[in-house]
Request: fold
Amino acid sequence: MWAALKARLRRRTDEAEEPPPAPAATTPPSPAPRPGPPVPGGGRPGTPSTPAAGHADPAVFADGFFGRKVEEETLDDLLDSIEIGLLESDVALPVVERLRRDLRKEFVGRKLKRGLETETVIRGALEQSVRAILAQPPLDVAARVRAGARPFVILFVGVNGTGKTTTVAKIALWLRSVGLSSVIAAGDTYRAGAIEQLLVHGERLGVRVVRQQEGSDPAAVGFDAIEHARAKGVDVVLVDTAGRQHTNENLIEEAKKIRRVTRPALTLFVGDALSGNDVLTQAQMFDQAIGIDGLVLTKLDADAKGGAALSAAYVTRKPIVFVGVGQGYDDLRPFDPEWMLRRLFAEEAAS
Ligand SMILES: Nc1nc2c(ncn2[C@@H]2O[C@H](COP(=O)(O)OP(=O)(O)OP(=O)(O)O)[C@@H](O)[C@H]2O)c(=O)[nH]1
Ligand SMILES: [Mg+2]
Reply:
């Protein structure tokens, strides 16, 4: 996110710093004329100006870049530019608005120079604000499992192809790494090949996969897996489900039934970070239809923008529990806001 925003800010500075038309040979060097007349109130042509002439936005004034006086610039103009950059990075509108408010508070009355200083100040202010947005009470799955009744059932839901099945396999491995056993319920009885896909994961990981025939009732598969876990003293039941659009009423009804029968301690929505703001809408819809407790965001390794991941918890008001960072079984991380912050503010885009 920051890398793209920085590039935008630099382009903007470069435009503002374009060399003036060459002065006549006899004319002594003079301050650079700017293209276009200044707008009363300090605004640029085409942008809303501040209300009263003589009361310019008391914010971003610059002087002395390479010894040349640079034209006044309004805070709103700078914030507009940042806002567009954030939207381009998939940051959701409510988050953009919050960031804008925070930056405005930070900048009003400050004196900034164009160029690197402005960039550093913007970065610092933005980072502080993003840290506050990402801060959330952590949802520690291992602690919940240890504190909860056994078996602890986790249900995975989401639209097609977001990474549910892969995430189930990754979580089985992660649970083992923290000393907890699991069994997987092959609850996608809908898509041809889904059961086989899970069996392969289960075999590779040495994790039991409970299944029935293709086309059978997924709630019954979940029930069987819970019975198995009870009998064998397994800590966690991971219930995979078929991908479904929230608009598909039959499949949503089916998901509700799986929920009623398996009574999960945790229902996780698995969303693909690459789908931008769609993933937020999907999570909200699933929450309304089925009820979710948290989010898993996948494919962050391929998501150079990062805005959807930044916005997810803020917009849905559900915690991000895990993030997927690749196709390997160990490419899963419990969500860490500081890790996310480092990615968002990397000087170079993540991928
Ligand atoms: N790069 C990357 N790819 C991922 C990640 N998680 C899953 N994938 C890939 O996404 C594709 C779909 O993954 P699945 O786990 O089959 O997705 P699903 O949600 O179960 O799909 P359906 O069951 O068809 O709804 C696979 O090629 C996975 O390897 C991730 O974190 N990063
Ligand atoms: Mg699947």
Remarks:
- Residues 158, 160-166, 188, 191, 194, 243, 298-299, 301-302, 324-327, 331 surround guanosine-5'-triphosphate (ligand 1) (CB under 6 Å).
